[in-house]
Design goal:
single chain, mainly alpha, 80% helix, rod-shaped
Amino acid sequence: MSSRIVPAVLIALLLVVHAQLWFGRGSVGSVSDMQRKLEAQKAANLAGQQANERMASEIRDLKEGLEMVEEKARVELGMVKPNEIYVQVAAPAASAQATATAR
C-alpha cells in the first residue's frame, strides 16, 4: 500500500504544478497578456517622449530663436532697427524683367 502512496502524491503535486502553470498567477496566459500590455505601454512611452522632445525643441527655439525671427523680418519683410538705414540694390535683370511685365 505504501508503494502506491508515493506515486500518487507525486502525481498530485505534478497536477498542482501544472494547474499553477496554466491557470494560476504567473501562468502562461497571464504572462503573455502582461507582455502585450508592456509593449503597448512602451509604445505609449515612446510617443510621449517624442512629444516631450518636440515641445522642448519648440520652447528652446522660442527662447533662443529671436535672432532667427529678426533675420526673417529683415530679409523677408525688409524691416530695420531704429537708427538703421536700409539700402536695397536691385539686379539689372530683375528690374528689366519687372518693366517688361508691367507693359
